[in-house]
Amino acid sequence: MKALMIIADGLGGRPTDYKGKTCLEAANTPNIDELTRQGDTGLLDPIKPGVRPESDTAHLSLFGYDPEEVYTGRGVFEALGMGMDVEEGDVCFRTNFATVDENLIIRDRRASRIQEGQKELEEALGGLKTSQSGVEVLFRASTEHRGALVLRGSGLSDRITDPDPHKTGVKVPKAKPETAEKSAKKTAKIVNELVKKSHEILRDLPLNKKREKEGKLPANILLPRGASMRPSLPSIKELYGIEGVAIAAGALYIGVARAAGLKFKRAEGVTGGFDSPIINKAKLAVKELNEGADFAFVHMKGADSCAHDHDAEGKIAFIEKVDEVIGYFLNNLNWDETHVVFTGDHTTPIVCGDHVSDPVPIVFAGPNVVPDDVGEFNERSVQKGGVGRISGQAVLPLLFGYCDFSKKFGT
Amino acid sequence: MKALMIIADGLGGRPTDYKGKTCLEAANTPNIDELTRQGDTGLLDPIKPGVRPESDTAHLSLFGYDPEEVYTGRGVFEALGMGMDVEEGDVCFRTNFATVDENLIIRDRRASRIQEGQKELEEALGGLKTSQSGVEVLFRASTEHRGALVLRGSGLSDRITDPDPHKTGVKVPKAKPETAEKSAKKTAKIVNELVKKSHEILRDLPLNKKREKEGKLPANILLPRGASMRPSLPSIKELYGIEGVAIAAGALYIGVARAAGLKFKRAEGVTGGFDSPIINKAKLAVKELNEGADFAFVHMKGADSCAHDHDAEGKIAFIEKVDEVIGYFLNNLNWDETHVVFTGDHTTPIVCGDHVSDPVPIVFAGPNVVPDDVGEFNERSVQKGGVGRISGQAVLPLLFGYCDFSKKFGT
Question: By the CB < 8 Å criterion, does A83 face chain B?
Fold first, then answer.
């Protein structure tokens, strides 16, 4: 048996989204509806009822972990998602390239979402070192202003405050230890040293001089945030004895999947944006399942981004792109031996432009699934589905249960 | 009020079971359907969604306990189920009579499912003693090759490996301590001594000499496995203040029920097999409820055994026998004051021939139950039921809730 989990980020919506309909109701989705006719549907609380998910906690839950137990912060997933290796005891941060003036007052937390020069910025910070002996500094730039920082060495802690004020017009604050432990004091000291050094390195970088000449904001400081250590997660392979792959574009999703022990596979040309050729993710998933993977996780981001921008028509259009992906799966999976779950990681209504706790439609399909009578896939129709209302941590066990991947509990 | 829990072992199925139907869908069940019309239905995850139950963990859950918290292994339930008393600190084992050659190489782990001589074997092993002072050895033979061994004394442990290799063609292994504790070392030593002595006693038993002459495999060694101590369970009487009886044939089910504080009652002629006169269990349950019991648990095994043997027609036929049992209850219970739940302890599909995690249909009926519109009892129809989707630990509290057995939580 094979298992496929398809996640359309931010899929769920509210009746206020578009002319009295949710975007899923408004979209034309013949393939998703066909999957629904073959499957068993219900409503998913991505973490549990009434909990507003972030993407990291939602995906931990979808991979079967309890985020209330295991979540240590986002930094580690961003670092893993950028391809960095994270060892036990490492402290990880998400970072922004930001713009500060000569008094370290923040003008833009994202250096106006700098589009170019990530390689030059990464190389420039490749020489970042701390004066604390035995602590290694690793940095990687990602897209636009984004990056990840990893501190490696003994006696470090993730219990420090961010040296990022999360607003403009104020001076870059010092990271402070959140506990009285020596390790927290040491880590805060290192981070403050690195932020200062990053400014010294970046302010004179040719890239930034050029940007200033062009009237653009320079990327002249590194602001780390979300200190976190690698959570202790038994991998999906350890739990179920199966090999899984993750097909995604956003670093965060790749990172959570890597933390769960899945192997990242890059689909051709995908970007995580609205225009991303997500059909290539479907093609790669089918290929990987045919070539030996037991489980594939496919993540598509666009619907969530449109909803964050209050763009109902964009979200509807992206859902219709997702429908083509489902169509590809309907035509190209080996349905005699594959079980599929399709859902979202949370609801992102158009009016809010942010994640809310409302449940998301979910459908399971495959030869061992008992289908219900539901023939359309949206927030209203699946209320009558056979799956009922489930929480995120049940999704992977239910999918793997249909595939007979699970071990028996008892003797 | 009276409460009745009726469990058809392995009741649930998959659409691949029989001509596109589950066995429950294929069976002719007018009485179960009548109970369904009067009742409220739903889907039961016997432990929780996606967890594959064994019979012991499933029944612990159905009796309201969390197997993840209380489960200690199967041995104790087998011993209790064979009528042995198990005290705190006792270490219990399931045992097989097996066949070994003169070098203790295992030829058959079940002595070709020896049909005769259980009493002689039990008596022969009645003299089993350990050289460790203060430790008592108790043994009971059950059906065929099955039995249970209990060690009683201070300083014993259940953290030892099995002296049963679970395969043939290899030498009987030594039990080994799983921890560095003195108690584990002591228990392993005792078990190894008893296995050796059992062979010395059994190899020359007249029964075995006779079997060898007839070309049959001798039952010439005792192989214990699944060391476990009695879990600490508050009894149903302690929790609810009611008296309950258990009506079953298999030792395991009797054992879990006894661990929950129910009194075992033997129905006439029942065997746990396909041909067992299970109607006698229904008659005994009605009698016990009439004569003072507040709660009766009735267990019927046949459907599960057929499914393990990939026998769809057998499973369908046994479900039709269960339907007669339900018919007896419809006609003979005092329905003004009795609440009933009917379900399975797990799903056993025909193709798999083993337990899977898929949910099982469940129905509650009785004067305080609000009925739903569902009129047939199977994996598909109950998806629309009023009970929704529940987990095993909720079953007994829901049943007892209708009976007003429960204490209020709060002051």
Answer: no
**Distance, CA of A377 to CA of A11 (rounded, Å):** 11
Q: How far apart are CA A204 and CA A116, in angstroms?
A: 16
Cβ atoms B142, B82 nearer than 8 A = yes
Handedness of CA A64, A65, A67, A68 (dihedral sign): positive
Question: Nearest chain A Cα to B228, which residue?
Answer: A411
Chain B CB within 8 Å of residue A40 CB: yes
Burial B161-175 (b: 16+ CB within 10 A, else e): bbbbeeeeeeebbeb
Q: Of B151, B154, B246, which Cα lies nearest the Cα of B193?
A: B151
Task: Measure CB to CB from residue A372 to each of B42, B71, B383 and give the nearest one.
Answer: B383
- CA distances in angstroms from B26 to A374, B16, B29, B311, listed in the order given: 22, 12, 9, 13
- Token pair of A106, please? 């923040």
Residues B49, A397: C-beta atoms closer than 8 Å: yes
Q: Mind telling me how many Å the CA of A170 is from chain B's nearest CA?
A: 50
- Cα A264 to Cα A82, A87, A296, A298, B76: the distances in Å are 11, 18, 10, 10, 46
Q: For residue B352, which residues of chain A lie inside 8 Å, CB to CB?
A: 404
Instruction: Note the pTM of the prediction, 2 decimals.
Output: 0.91
- Whether residues B47 and A409 touch (CB distance < 8 A) is answered with yes
Going by C-alpha positions, the residue among A299, A222, A301 that lies closest to residue A258 is A299
How many other CB atoms sit within 10 Å of the CB of residue A146? 20
List Cβ neighbours of A184 (8 Å cut-off, separation of 6 or more).
A157, A159, A160, A177, A178
Write b or e for each residue in B256-270: b if 16 or more Cβ atoms lie within 10 A of its Cβ, otherwise e.
Answer: bbbbbbbebbebeeb
Would you say A382 and A39 are in contact if contact means Cβ atoms under 8 Å apart? no
pLDDT digits (tens, 9 = 90+) for B298-314: 999 999 999 999 999 99
* Residue pair A182/A170 in contact by the 8 Å Cβ criterion: no
Find where tokens 């258990």 sit: B246
| Ramachandran angles phi, psi of B150, nearest 5° | -125, 130
User: Nearest residue of A to residue B77 by CA position?
Assistant: A411
In a 3-state reduction of DSSP, which class is residue A137?
A: strand
CB contact under 8 A, B58 and A410: yes
What are the chain A neighbours of B14 within 8 Å (beta carbons)? 368, 370
Per-residue pLDDT tens digits for B28-79: 999 999 999 999 999 999 999 999 999 999 999 999 999 999 999 999 999 9
Classify B404 in phi/psi space as left (phi over 0), alpha (psi -120 to 50) or beta: left
Q: What are the angstrom distances between the C-alpha of B186 and each of B161, B190, B310?
A: 13, 6, 43
What count of CB pairs under 8 Å joins A to B?
Answer: 94
State the Cα–Cα distance between residues B231 and B63, nearest whole angstrom. 14
Rounded to 5°, the CA angle A206-A211-A215 comes to 150
- ipTM higher than the 0.85 cut: yes
